[in-house]
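Justification of computing resources. Each target in the renewal requires a structure prediction run like the one illustrated here; the chain below, 128 residues long, is used simply to show the kind of job we budget for.
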Amino acid sequence: QLQLVESGGGLVQPGGSLRLSCTAPDFFLKYYAIGWFRQAPGKEPEGVSCISGSGSHTNYADSVKGRFTISRDNAENTVYLQMNGLKPEDTAIYYCAPDYDSSSCRLLTDHPPDFGSWGRGTQVTVSS
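Resulting structure tokens:
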């Protein structure tokens, strides 16, 4: 199984910022596209953003476009999600997951079954 570790979540006021990190203790992220998705209570999971293995291609959900930025540092084996202008509706548990690498990437709403990957996620709460 491929374990991913998400961190950087917390409680922030509306309009605030957080930077989430996704790393893997036992494998190299550079061979995979990485997607961030989130799960809010009572809602369907939502694909937030993704980045190709080289970092040359990114994609965003319309709900976060212009506010969130995904990036990666393959030397540090880490993928980041910079979240600015946070809104209460961004409150959710955020997860990262690997995907097949290609010249593009797709938004994920769960860990793809092909990799047996998992992670505990990181809680983001936006509230005044």
